[in-house]
Design a protein that fits this description.
The protein is mostly beta strands and about 150 residues long. It is about 10% helix and about 50% strand. It has two helices and nine strands, in the order αββββαβββββ. An eight-stranded antiparallel beta barrel has the order 1-3-4-5-6-7-8-9.
């Protein structure tokens, strides 16, 4: 039987807000009004997707490589398994497949907390020598596996 935190994660979540916070505390929205879905199931599987909604269509022809690059940069997608850390402060996504091949076989660790019915996940990453926190706020769409 899953613990209370694992049970709270179960279901599908809709992205409400994706912000970055730099070392000076400045907030920005790297994907604009991003959209996304995050799902955790009772068998320990997860999948997550986030995208910039205003990505240009990709068409064969002149500028194709640049179009593909723009589409790729505006989308994050991966799947695998998950585990809540023993202290309940983070969730580890063990990546089995990803749009970014560099993530396959690795772990994406997200600090987590609940704010009412919302799930807030964040990770701090080094971006060109500056530590930037990526904070994603999720709202439950549906729950399953709960009795």
């Amino acid at each position: 039987m899953k613990g209370a935190l694992e049970a709270r994660l179960l279901g599908t979540w809709r992205l409400v807000l994706y912000e970055t916070v730099d070392q000076a505390g400045r907030r920005s929205r790297p994907y604009g009004d991003a959209v996304g879905r995050l799902t955790y199931d009772q068998d320990g599987n997860m999948t997550g997707q986030v995208m910039r909604p205003d990505r240009a269509p990709v068409a064969l022809g002149e500028g194709y490589a640049q179009q593909v690059r723009g589409a790729y940069i505006g989308y994050i997608a991966y799947f695998g398994t998950y585990e809540v850390a023993p202290d309940g402060q983070s969730v580890v996504h063990r990546v089995e497949g990803s749009l970014n091949p560099a993530w396959v076989g690795g772990n994406q660790v997200r600090t987590m907390r609940f704010d009412g019915d919302r799930l807030i996940l964040h990770a701090t990453v080094d971006e060109a020598g500056e530590m930037v926190r990526h904070e994603l706020t999720w709202e439950r769409c549906s729950a399953f596996g709960l009795s």
